[in-house]
Amino acid sequence: MVSLVSERIGQFFVGEDRLEYTEYGTGDRWVVLVHGQLMVRRMHQPLARVLAANGARVVTVDLLGHGRSDRPADPLAYSMTAFGEQVLALLDELGIERAVVGGISLGANVALEVADLAPERVQGLVLEMPVLDNAVEAGILAFAPMLFAARFLPFTVTGLRRATKIVPRGLVPFWAGIVLDTMNQRPAPMAAAIHGIFFGRVAPPSARRRLLGMPALVVGHPRDPIHPAADAAMLAEELPDARFVRSRGILEWRVRPERLDSEAVEFVTACWDAAGVQRIG
Question: Does the 7-133+202-275 domain belong in CATH 3.40.50.1820?
């Protein structure tokens, strides 16, 4: 059982764009968690509550074009670097000097961008299913049809949104609700987000990743074509202070989270115990 923790929803602006976040727990041991592509911040609610119950103060954020944040239709609004800058803007908004930054898939790559842009702000990295060299072809095969549908068959995206929106989230299991929330897309912003992400740099290059000296926990999944375990293992070898943990399956952290939750709690605790707590002000 997870202890009850305080939760509050907030918003901040990057230029004219509004982004929304949820904050869990109290204290100065900050953790920021970033969702996967086209997904929503609520996917990290279970882990956020576990970390908060163990002394962390966790923030989950909807990046631009996702969840309850604004969704511009301009591809130029979307890139890994822009997403990294949004996380840094969130740290500034909350007065956070340093945080453990993590995420899944897109979120893992965004965490790497944050570390590359401002390594002095990153206490540690939690990287699940990073998307690197070995995932390029599978990623194109997975997301190119979505881009095509959003651009040239927008009624398919709109129809799916309308069909899934009527399902009460309180009547379905948690992860079914996350899938339904992920289908809540609008054609133009969805196409713009996919376009911007896949036609820009996917992650900091290997030479720069090798310079990231903060502690890192890298989680890889077996038999996952879009997020090959080889990418996660390669990243763990590149990062100077990383530990690689192999998941027992693609869905382990979703349906049987106890082992990986414990790994994350232990890692976050060690990051802050090793360096102490620092905060702006």
Answer: yes
